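A note from the maintainers: we've had questions about how concatenated examples are separated. There is no special marker in the raw files; a new sequence line simply starts the next protein. For clarity in this README we add a label.
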Amino acid sequence: MTLSPLPALMTEPVVRAALLEDLGRAGDITTEAVIPADAVMEVAMVARQPGTLAGLGIAMQAFALMDPGLSLEPLAADGDAVRAGDAVLRIGGRARPILSAERVALNFACRLSGIASATAILAAAARAHGHARIACTRKTTPGLRALEKYAVRAGGGANHRFGLDDAVLIKDNHVAAAGGVAAAVRAARAYVGHLVKIELEVDTLAQLRAAMEIGVDAVLLDNMGPDMLREAVALVAGRAVTEASGRVTAETVPGIAAAGVDLISCGWLTHSAPILDLGLDFQG
């Protein structure tokens, strides 16, 4: 599937806010003190380690907001695998705006590339042992959800729901408060429109049987080991999408995928993935 960039209308407010936060009340006093106003420079954004790229367009937007006259030449694309030493973006023009935008541009590119890189590792492990896709969750950085979920797609993963309003996910506390699985599912089905999917979280096979009796679109199989997951997939028998969640790592993904689930969701991709180290190198 072709990765479509996020519209500038969605990303510019976030990038602009980050630049304003960094510039503070007086602007970049270091650069203005040290660098002559007419100085020009050329730099390259370079990968310091191997990984998967994401957020290159966001980084370019940071530079362009500081100075629309800068020359921005992408040397790679989001979703590309990069090696240590690969240049991914060349920037040229007035030195002051380049230096002032540097940190914000790198913050976005490093963070989003880290998410894409972690996703790519899990996605490769899942593909090698089954048909499951790796999916993210709502455990995202406040204000950055659209960007971080985009980075998951850049790494070859899939997006779970974007918020509380685009799908029903009935979890254990919903079931307890509603008075049981059947009551919760019936209430949800009566409330939402015909295009809204209903997913139910279960952590036992008994709960799963109840879900299959009443009927749901998807089941979230929470913290089940590979053997129980195989039983769950057999019990569902294609009547609902099966999603495994809990204790997902590069080491556990092969066993989870081999159980035959459709999706493997992982919260740490967007809340704890390490960055991909990128830097800006002076080109002379």
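[label: protein 2]
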Amino acid sequence: MDTTTTSSRGLLDTGDPSFRLTRVPVSAGLGAFVERFWMTSWDLPPGRSAAVTLLPHPCVNLVYDSGQLMISGVGRERFTYTYRGRGQVFGIKFRPGGFQPFLGGPVAELTDQVRPLSTLWGSSASVFADELAGAAGQDELISVAERHLRAHWPPPDTEVARVGRIVRALLHDRTVTRVQDVTERFGLSTRTLQRLFQRYVGVSPKWVLKRYRLHEAAARLAEGKGGDWADLGYFDQSHFIRDFTRAVGMTPSAYVAACARNEAPLSA
């Protein structure tokens, strides 16, 4: 059974081959709430800069960047990160719904927000950041992160598992094309489903479904396979083009042309 609740898609383009992305599975015992660790790194000549654009997943991340340890809520819009010189960013990607037990309140309060981890963990967040700053390499970064996660590990929450089952259906099952398909399959009213996602995920189930399908569309177009909008749950082509253009920033045909110019999405 595929237990993933996010894909490896969503990194739309990178204009420089020096940009590297690594994804690492979590250790046993952490997978109930955490999807994976990730690290980006780059090394550019002096005076040069480049950028990478992301179409975010419905996940909360803890991000260590430039000495700061931040809570990054679900971002609903595409995000461009500009980098220069030599550097790296380390992150912890929680499963959709997986950060709520750490937060204790509605994850929707974090949507489109970036906040210092210290607002949640107090002074221990500074200790966490200091230890990450002193870590020598990826393995040590992950060791530090796992130790601090375990120190703040919340009690079990069966709702996270239920959210995970629903999200897996949205991600993997192509017969799920509407929110009504979800309510019927999982025996939930639309209102209950909406409240569950507002508290645990931070965005609506309709948003999650659309985002996963747009990730898939971008990947297909980048690979030259074309965008079958009907297979992605759209009832008309104009609706698909409108949603894709708004999310990605260019029409599907323009995106194909950009990929052909070696401005292709990076997926790992």
